[in-house]
Amino acid sequence: MKLHFIGAAHEVTGSCTYINACGKHFLVDFGMEQGVDVYENAQVPTSPSSIDFVLLTHAHIDHSGLLPLLCAGGFRGDIHCTKATANLCGIMLRDSAHIQEFESEWRSRKAKRKGQEDVEPLYTIADAEDAIKCLVPHDYDETIEICEGVRVRFVDAGHLLGSSSIELWLTENGQTRKLVFSGDIGNKSQPLIRDPQYLDEADYVIMESTYGTRLHQRPTDYAKELAGVLQRTFDRGGNVVIPSFAVGRTQEMLYFLRQVKEQGLVKGHAHFPVYVDSPLAIDATDIFIRNRESCYDEEAMRYVKMGINPITFDDLRLAVTSDQSRAINFDRIPKVIISASGMCEAGRIKHHLKHNLWRPECTVVFVGYQAAQTLGRSLCEGVKRVKLFGEDISVCAEVTILPGVSGHADKAGLDEWISHIKVSDKVFVNHGDSAVADQYTAHLREDMGLDAYCPYSGAELDLLTGSFKNTEPIPVTRTAKPSTAYQRLVASLDRLSAIVQSSKGLTNKELGKMADTIANLCSKWES
User: Fold this and answer.
1) Per-residue b/e over 390-408, b at no fewer than 16 CB within 10 Å?
2) Rounded (5°) CA angle 291-296-298
3) Could you give the domains of the chain?
4) Structure confidence at residue 478 (pLDDT)
5) Cβ pair 404, 222 in contact under 8 A
6) Does residue 409 contact residue 211 with C-beta atoms inside 8 Å?
7) Contact present, 399 and 370 (Cβ < 8 Å)
8) CA geometry: angle at 456 spanning 160 and 343, to 5°?
């Protein structure tokens, strides 16, 4: 029984843990790194085709975003998750693949003009479709026997629709170990979805630490706080631009905006339009509505029982096409524009920033976590100029952060979550900026008396003996990251290797034909 820490080790994004137990190789999450990487990630110590299954905590791309790349390398196992997570992944992985293909095409056009090579996408829409076919949905709190010796239960983590902590029981040679993966632990008293559910005991806990050194400044009334921003911006004749994660945060903002309108909190602008400019967010909103019975909290369900949809209202306008998106900025009526991505790194939000950042009457409101060295973080830190689509833009608009609107628990919330678990062995802290993860680990050891560690990528845990071997961190260098094309090539090699390994039952004629095909391919590239 061995566990290897792969991703989100001393970093916030790219969650991935590899486990070899009960004769199986499997992953907990396989997420994409977002923002600038700090440390090199160790490779998963087996090929994609050798991975038997994946356990997925939730649909956010930093937890699910590399599943299509896994499939491109030959993975054909099951991806176990909650029903709502499967629904959301169905749209999010397609969207991620579309972005990969679109941006590679755009960068290739720029490269061609400079006489440089084409840029290949990390994975394609076809790869995303393969990953979606592997999704196996489960109910919350249902104990599932994945295979002999492996049992799993998904428990509501209160972070996103369908998000879960995972209880994992492993039994090998008569010995059982229970692991708990926190996933992303939700903030309490958030709109729409339920508070995180607590667990009782575990041998090992692997938990996140995103806000492990902060306490959220919670406004007494989110809707009133937001209304204040809207009022002063609309009175200036400006737009309120909200970079928002398409899944989760957008739906929460719609919930608040409905309250603002329902309670008449903005004076003199009663019918201000609200634009949701993100096809992904529009699709995700429909999924929220369809999963309301299993995921909504009591307050949201009270609206539902009265026949009211808590995330729609008059003056809500949906921009699906590119033409509809462009038209938003030619309308001079003060408005709210909600658009993705939440960290301003891609998508339509960059166009809205280009049109509104230079206008002092406008406001940009950040309502979610901004990873280091992203455009969103730079704006939050007060940068005066940014480059968008090759053009220098002055930052004259008001830039503000709506406090307390976070999908992640703060330090107090993390403490409350871990304090409910009777831990018989060790706690491992990941999914946090390097300094934050270290500080929260020290807090668990010194203030809560837990045997806590903060692993680097490549660290290894023997689940039977409890022996833990950490590794030295390897800082990322500018030349360290292989190109996406090379990563796809390696994935193809893994896939070919799996095909060869599974070909032993073929006839000599079929084997010969396969060998000749491979030899011809090699000759082509050797010449």
Assistant:
1) eeebebebbbbebebbbbb
2) 150
3) 2-214+407-469 (3.60.15.10), 222-401 (3.40.50.10890)
4) 53
5) yes
6) yes
7) no
8) 40
Decide which of 112 and 204 is more confident: 204
User: What is the model's pLDDT at position 527?
Assistant: 55
**Helices and strands of the chain, counted as H and E runs:** 16, 23
Top-confidence residue, 426 or 505: 426
- Residues in Cβ contact with 450 at an 8 Å cutoff, skipping those fewer than 6 apart: 418, 423, 427, 444
Please say whether the dihedral angle defined by the alpha carbons of residues 145, 147, 150 and 153, taken in this order, is positive or negative: negative
As a whole number of angstroms, the distance between CA 364 and CA 356 comes to 8
* 372, two tokens: 């280091």
Q: How many other CB atoms are there within 10 angstroms of residue 425's CB atom?
A: 17
Average pLDDT for residues 413-418, to the nearest whole number?
98
Task: Name residue, tokens 């837990």.
Answer: 450
Supply the DSSP symbol for 177: E
Q: Does the pLDDT at position 480 exceed 50? A: no
**What pLDDT is attached to residue 488?**
64
Q: List, for residues 146-174, the tens digit of each pLDDT value.
A: 999 999 999 999 999 999 999 999 999 99
Q: Average pLDDT for residues 418-427, to the nearest whole number?
A: 98
Q: What is the rounded average pLDDT of the residues 231-253?
A: 94
pLDDT in tens, 272-298: 999 999 889 899 989 998 998 888 888
What share of the chain in percent tops pLDDT 90? 66
Rounded CA-CA distance 420/423 in Å is: 9
| Cα–Cα distances in angstroms (integers) from residue 377 to residues 85, 343, 450, in the given order | 27, 7, 33
Q: Inter-axis angle of helices 411-419 and 434-446, to 10 degrees?
A: 50
Tell me the C-alpha distance between 102 and 82, whole Å: 30
The side-by-side arrangement of strands in the sheet containing 274-277 is 316-318, 274-277, 336-339, 240-243, 363-366, 398-401
CA 184 to chain centre: 9
CB of 256 closer than 8 Å to CB of 226: yes
Q: What is the mean pLDDT of residues 210-229?
A: 87
Residue 230 pLDDT: 98
Q: Are strands 16-21 and 2-7 parallel, antiparallel or unpaired?
A: antiparallel
